[in-house]
Amino acid sequence: MTDGAEPAGRGHLWHGRFDVGPAEELMAFTESRSFDVRLLVDDVACSKAHVRGLARAGLLTEEELGALLGGLDAVEMEFRAGELRFEPADEDVHTAIERRVTELVGAVGGKLHTGRSRNDQVATAFRHHLLGAVDDVSDRVLDLVEVLAARADEAGTGDGAAYLPGYTHLQQAQPVLLAHHLMAHAWALLRDVDRLADCRVRLDVSPLGAGALAGSSLPLEPAATAADAGFTAVFENSLDATSDRDFAAETLFCLTMVAVHLSRMGEEVVLWSTEEFGFARLDDAFATGSSMLPQKKNPDIAELARGKAGRVIGDLAGLLATLKGLPLAYNRDLQEDKEPVLDALDAVRLGLGAMTGMYRTLGFRTERMAAAADSPYGAATDLAEWLVARGMPFREAHAVVGALVRRSLDDGEDLAALVAAEPSLGPDAAALVAPGASVRRRTTPGGAGPGPVAAQRVQLAARIGSARARRGDRA
Asked: Using CA atoms, how far apart are residues 93 and 437, in angstroms rounded to an integer?
């Protein structure tokens, strides 16, 4: 007997081939139950479909089928009640389920694993779990989009609408309506919803019936079992079915994009809530204080949105590195697929909830926004376009206005006075640098002016509605 190893006994799934049981070090290194226990309900659901398939194939009697279904129901109830006890030999949740079902129903429990391998079983349960998780994330993203849309309505698009500087390179560029700015984030998040929906199509494929890698000699019907388990499609190639983790990587990429968008939004709140910007006030319920500095109100949610994005990006990079060199078909490396995806799910779900609450309660200091946006230099492009509309080539107009801006900055002269005195511009053009004038001039579709933004809000409502309807069709 190997030092540290126990007799093989009948507690391990592979006991027939081995003289001794697994060493403690092996079990400690290879166990996955500590994290894949989250798949228990999904594995039970897929196992029920599997045993019904076995009964259809004549491999189980009605009595045996009833016993196995009853045992699976009992395991799920124990789990939900917090009463399911795990044993040291339960290296993963799938082993634990089979062990407990056998304890409950006796020898017929040994038929639960007929015609399947843990390779196809694990992949099926993981896909089943991610289908629900992707739907949940989509709902949470849409919740945040709806908050952004509501805040855009509060900011307005008509007379008195809130506006602020738009930035490129974090330098003031042109004024934009606050509603336009908020909806920019909403459109990015809606792309995330679209990506998740597209990813879901490839998630919705059952590998059950692929076996360890080559299928089975038993008269199984994988397509019927897939439909019974709630999947739309079934695998086409058994080797691919058990080794494929594209679905995990793609889900993780979609989650990473959500995290990146939350990070960008968080960075903005960090900047806006500083005294230097002063564009926003954090609600007390969605901010933290300092243990030492009494005056502080810290944007921890926004900062952690940035920080957790880095962690989720790391999850994606780690999974891709794991997958890049694996030969067909299954390799134990694939056990490393779940932790990064589940970690990213946790981070993104919590982040969406926190950011939704923060944006719902964020106080916008529209007077500070307007004061910053009313810098006359924000109208420089309007002045150039005013000249273009009167026939001057754009590059020449750009040079004329750029020279006036330089004189104003270098010599401290009032830009409006310089514009009024410029022969190619004059008093009519000088009106363009008046406070609030520039933002009202944006008229092109999708632009930041009142007309386009009002039209955009209608389009956004339609997109939100179609996304919600699509989710409702799957509910």
From this structure: 64
Residue 207 has pLDDT above 70, yes or no: yes
Answer yes or no: 32 catalytic: no
The CA distances from residue 133 to 26, 179, 338, 473, in Å, are: 31, 31, 13, 16
**190, 398 in Cβ contact below 8 A?**
no
Asked if residues 182 and 156 have their Cβ atoms less than 8 Å apart, the reply is no
Rounded Cα distance between 76 and 407, Å, is 76
Q: Are 449 and 441 in contact (CB under 8 A)?
A: yes
Fold of 375-434: Ribonucleotide Reductase Protein R1; domain 1 (1.10.40)
Asked if 384 and 394 count as a contact pair (C-beta separation under 8 A), the reply is: yes
Choosing from 34, 94, 117, 169, which is the catalytic residue? 169
Q: What is the pLDDT of residues 426-461, one digit of tens each?
A: 999 999 999 999 999 999 999 999 999 999 999 999
| This model's pTM is above 0.85 | yes
**CATH architecture for residues 31-114:** Orthogonal Bundle (1.10)
Radius of gyration of the chain (CA): 30
Helix (H) or strand (E) holding 267: helix 246-272
Neighbouring C-alpha atoms within 13 Å toward the C-beta of 405: 17
Segment 76-89 mean pLDDT? 96
- Residue 209 region, left (φ>0) first, then alpha (ψ -120 to 50), else beta? left
The C-alpha atoms of residue 422 and residue 387 are separated, in whole angstroms, by 12
Place of tokens 């000699």: 217
Residue 7 has pLDDT above 70, yes or no: no
Angle (nearest 5°) at CA 27 between 210 and 109: 50
Q: Parallel, antiparallel, or unpaired: how do β-strands 363-364 and 280-281 relate?
A: antiparallel
The strand pairing partners of 298, in sequence order, are 288
By DSSP bridging, strand 233-234 and strand 205-206 are parallel
Residue type, 121: Q
> Cα dihedral sign for 99, 101, 103, 109?
negative
Determine whether 185 is an active site residue. no
Q: What is the DSSP letter of 60?
A: S
Residues 6+ apart with CB under 8 A from 465: none
Q: Where are the domains of the chain?
A: 31-114, 119-161+185-239+247-371+454-474, 375-434
What is the β-pairing status of strands 171-177 and 163-168? antiparallel
Task: Tell me which of 47, 290, 291, 424 is the catalytic residue.
Answer: 290
Overall residue count recorded for the chain in this entry:
475
d(CA 173, CA 378): 6
Q: Which fold has domain 119-161+185-239+247-371+454-474?
A: Fumarase C; Chain A, domain 2 (1.20.200)
- The structure tokens listed for 381 are 């492009």
- Does the structure show a pLDDT above 80 at 103? yes
